[in-house]
Design brief:
The protein is mainly alpha-helical. The chain contains six helices and two strands; from the N terminus they run H-E-H-H-E-H-H-H. It is elongated and about 40 Å long. This is DUF2795 domain-containing protein.
């Protein structure tokens, strides 16, 4: 696990990336951005060597502290534990649907 970085910091370091992008392109963009700390670059180096369609895919694939700023509810974390994700993807970053009550409140 990469300590000292969050999914938000990783995504912020990729603000100028044109997607789809490969792992190598993401690492290089984080280095060039100036906002890409050593921790962010290390987190991107640890992702599977795939092509990523958008920042959400990157955020779900990068390994960060599970208590970072993702803001998931206990129900969403439980759903993540039950469902599979992409190979190499951290369990706590897998897609998790909103609980029905949250869907209702958001509409």
């Amino acid at each position: 696990m990469v300590h000292g970085t969050s999914a938000r910091e990783v995504v912020d370091a990729l603000k100028d990336v044109d997607f789809p992008a490969t792992k190598d392109e993401l690492v290089e963009a984080a280095r060039r951005s100036g906002g890409g700390s050593k921790e962010v670059v290390a987190a991107l180096r640890a992702i599977p060597p795939d092509e990523y369609a958008n920042k959400d895919e990157v955020a779900r694939s990068v390994r960060v502290d599970p208590a970072s700023d993702l803001g998931l509810s206990p129900a969403q974390r439980a759903e993540q534990a039950r469902k599979g994700g992409r190979p190499g993807q951290s369990q706590h970053l897998r897609d998790a649907p909103k609980p029905p009550i949250q869907e209702e409140l958001d509409s």
